[in-house]
Amino acid sequence: MTNESDGGVPATQPVGADLDAPAQTPPSPDKGMFGVKGTGDVSGFGGLARRRPTTADTARPFGGYFDEVHDALEEAYPGFADAIEKVVVDRGELTLHIKAERIAEVCQIMRDDESLRFELCSSVDAVDYLGSDNRRFHVSYQLTSMTYRRRVRLEAAVAEGVSLPSVTSVYPTADWQEREIYDMFGVVFDGHPNLTRILMPDDWEGHPQRKDYPLGGVPVEYKGAEIPPPDQRRVYQ
C-alpha cells in the first residue's frame, strides 16, 4: 500500500470494502456485483449477458407439432379465446399463457382430449417478477404427452394476494409442487387438499424465494475462519 508521502498513488478504500460492511445488492438486473455494469451478469465474474425473455405473441406458423397442439386445444375447449392470453414459442419450446382462473379447466382438456393426451404434469414451478410485472408471480406447468411424445408449458400469472385454482384433481403429481410454491412464494392454490408448508417449519414467517425477502444466513466456521451471512459480507468494487 502506498501513500502520498512516498510519492505514490494515494491509497483509498472503496465504499463498502471494509470488513463486515453490508453487502450492496445490485439495484437492477442490468447492473452486476463487483462493479460490473450493463452486461446483465449479476455474478460479476463471467461477463455473461442476460437474454431478455420473449413476451410478445409468436406469429403462426409456430412450427413442428405446436400448431397441432394449439388447434386441438382450440377445437376441444369452448372457452379458448377467453382463456388464452398469448402463445409464445421461444428456444424451441411452446408456452401457452393462461388466465389464472382458467388454469384447471385448461389442464383438464389437455389431459383428457384424445388429440392432446398430456397425461403427465412433470413439474410446477414459480418465478417472482417483482418490479417488472404487476402480476408478479408466474406459475408454470410442464406437461408431457407420453402418447404423442410431446411437451408444452402452461403459464399463469397472479398478483400478490390473488389465488390460483389447484390442479391436483387433474394431476396428482402437482400436490407437493403446489405446496412448495405456497411455502416459498406464498401463492395460494384454491382446492388443494393440504396446502401447508413442506420445506420450512410450520411457524416460519414469510416466503424465502420472494424477491423482497431479506437476505439471511448463519455464520459458517471453516478451519478456524468464520464466514459471515451474505448481508454482512464485504463488497469488492
TrEMBL record:
Q: Which species expresses this protein natively? A: Actinoplanes auranticolor
Question: What functional role does this protein have?
Answer: NDH-1 shuttles electrons from NADH, via FMN and iron-sulfur (Fe-S) centers, to quinones in the respiratory chain. The immediate electron acceptor for the enzyme in this species is believed to be a menaquinone. Couples the redox reaction to proton translocation (for every two electrons transferred, four hydrogen ions are translocated across the cytoplasmic membrane), and thus conserves the redox energy in a proton gradient.
Q: Cite the record's note on assembly.
A: NDH-1 is composed of 14 different subunits. Subunits NuoB, C, D, E, F, and G constitute the peripheral sector of the complex.
Task: Work out whether the entry's keyword set contains tRNA processing.
Answer: no
Q: Can you list the GO cellular component terms from the UniProt entry?
A: plasma membrane
The entry's protein name is NADH-quinone oxidoreductase subunit C
EC class: translocase
InterPro entries according to UniProt: NADH_DH_suC, NADH_quin_OxRdtase_su_C/D-like, NADH_UbQ_OxRdtase_30kDa_su
Give the region (Disordered) as residue ranges.
Answer: 1-37
Its keywords, alphabetically, are:
Cell membrane, Membrane, NAD, Quinone, Translocase, Transport
Task: Show the catalytic activity.
Answer: a quinone + NADH + 5 H(+)(in) = a quinol + NAD(+) + 4 H(+)(out)
